[in-house]
User: Which sequence fits this backbone?
């Protein structure tokens, strides 16, 4: 066996000086870890099946040809027919808040999807991707007053994480990040039950009765004329940015 040695001069005994390379056994040599990686792959599948939740998964049919690359969206995007999938879920749930900008929710979820099970259901030519939506349909069963499972849109997909999911440098699960999804008439999807946005000519649902009509007692034009009434009060006809008045 030939021994690799340091080629430089070692007359001054400067480290690293000439020494044999240690040909020891590498524990993390992937060519010898196939059996151990199979054990971890089976482990992840078992954990997800035992403690995971069944979701309804919608694949986004994002099309680069019809997409608007300036805005980064596909206005004619549709969703494929849903399929059932069991995933591991870490939920960070928050209540829906009604603000002056509309209904907002900061719900987030971290999910673990077995790569093997994904291939069995969706095929090896596909992967989870940003824009896909899944419904926590099993978790949402039995919610009061007609509510259904919450919907989440995937924002990030990772296939390896050395600290959490890639034991012995294997690849067993997709690590998914997702945020609460608010439906806006996308073909192939439907809104969550009793998650009513406030639309014009639609019910408000703010007093506890979802059929309460939205009141329109104020008029924007009348309110604005109290500040700038150019028709009946010429003295108010000044530059709104603090310029000149009428002499």
Assistant:
């Amino acid at each position: 066996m030939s021994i690799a040695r340091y080629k430089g001069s070692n007359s001054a005994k400067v480290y690293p000086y000439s020494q044999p390379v240690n040909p020891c056994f590498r524990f993390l040599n992937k060519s010898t870890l196939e059996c151990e990686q199979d054990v971890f792959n089976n482990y992840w599948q078992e954990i997800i099946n035992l403690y995971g939740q069944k979701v309804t998964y919608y694949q986004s049919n994002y099309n680069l040809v019809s997409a608007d690359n300036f805005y980064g969206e596909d206005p004619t995007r549709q969703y494929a027919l849903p399929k059932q999938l069991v995933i591991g879920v870490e939920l960070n749930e928050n209540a829906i808040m009604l603000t002056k900008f509309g209904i907002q929710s900061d719900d987030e979820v971290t999910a673990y999807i077995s790569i093997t099970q994904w291939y069995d259901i969706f095929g090896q030519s596909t992967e989870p991707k940003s824009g896909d939506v899944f419904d926590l349909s099993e978790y949402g069963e039995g919610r009061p007053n007609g509510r259904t499972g919450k919907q989440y849109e995937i924002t990030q997909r990772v296939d390896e994480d050395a600290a959490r999911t890639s034991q012995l440098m294997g690849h067993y699960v997709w690590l998914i990040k997702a945020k609460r999804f608010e439906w806006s008439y996308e073909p192939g999807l439907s809104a969550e039950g009793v998650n009513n946005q406030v639309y014009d000519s639609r019910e408000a649902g703010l007093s506890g009765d979802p059929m309460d009509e939205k009141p329109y007692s104020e008029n924007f034009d009348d309110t604005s004329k109290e500040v700038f009434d150019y028709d009946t009060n010429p003295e108010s006809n000044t530059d709104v940015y603090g310029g000149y008045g009428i002499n």
Q: What stands out?
A: Confidence is low (pLDDT under 50) at residues 200-208, 243-247. The two ends are 103 Å apart (CA to CA). Residues 34-51 form the longest helix (18 residues). The chain has four helices and eight strands.
